[in-house]
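In this section we walk through a basic example: taking a raw amino acid sequence and producing a predicted 3D structure, encoded as discrete structure tokens. The instruction is simple. Fold the sequence below.
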Amino acid sequence: MKKMRVGVLYGGRSGEHEISLASAAAVIAHLDPARYETVPIRIEKDGRWRVAARPPESIKASEVIEASRGATARTEIAEREAYLAPCPGDTTFHLDVMFPVLHGPYGEDGTVQGLLELADVPYVGAGVLGSAVGMDKAAMKLVFAASGLPIVKHETVLRRDWLTDTRGLVKGLIASLGLPVFVKPANLGSSVGISKVKTEDQLAPAMDLAAGFDRKIVIEAAVPNAREIECGVLGNDRPNASIPGEIRPPATREFYDYEAKYLDEASETIIPAPLSPAQVVEVQRLAVAAFRAIDAAGFARVDFLLNRQTGDLYLNEVNTIPGFTTISMFPKLWEASGLCYSELLDRLIELALERHAEKQELK
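The resulting token sequence is shown next.
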């Protein structure tokens, strides 16, 4: 049987470039070589596309991040020249399906998905709309609210407005949301640029930090005594939810930030999450509802905040290309639900081809 040619697209221009390398290494290592011919395609931080001479090898995000932080410009250039081969002379080389393993802007936000739509190439994951809404926290919350899904009280501020009326917005935001709040760039992941603000004097620096990453800033009222619950969703028009899991950052951190996610081994992952049967059903119901609300496809990880005292459950966000190393939450949730990593990859490719075939039937 002829092998299916799978392009694994990774790297990218976003601040989550290194996380993507680790996710792609795991995906490539677990694609069955008897069924697939893998073509590793790397997008550099400056936007250049290259077919890699060899794929990334480290599946631990911490190793990739620490290596990138310690590298000098000279060693980075030397590694890149040794690592990457020129694009093939035949620019029409065929791919049966593309597997984007890109996190953040310019990869998870509908831009690459739009390019693949124009090229008529089947691809894994959400389409242009689902990707764009899933990336933009402000737009996502509007869609959740319109769908009657539970979200925390929040405000969205444009960077231009913040720069022109800083003092007025500080007073207005505190009056509207109280304290503490979380301040986030609307279009980033991996907790990049996020701050927890507990006092009035902390708000302006947090807003400045977020405004350095995006033109839109989302400010959310903090959920008291919050537990962080996550659930995987798999499918197209009839998606299914995984067993929920829970993330417990170390007590030394205010929330599950970038360092806690990728560099601090004290963070704890609990699968299944210690929830009542009714809570499990509700998490799974809301996860599927959120997936459908943004018009996602293929896969997503849906994140929740659960108030320990009241039991109130809030949707936080949908990640349309979640972390995909073997120790990432999404594949671990599905492994606990009965689908191992390699089988999960097979299913995602099947869903991509299924969705593309359905589009071909349209006039």
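Looking at the output, two observations stand out. The longest helix spans residues 341-360. The chain has 13 helices and 15 strands. In the next section we compare this with other chains.
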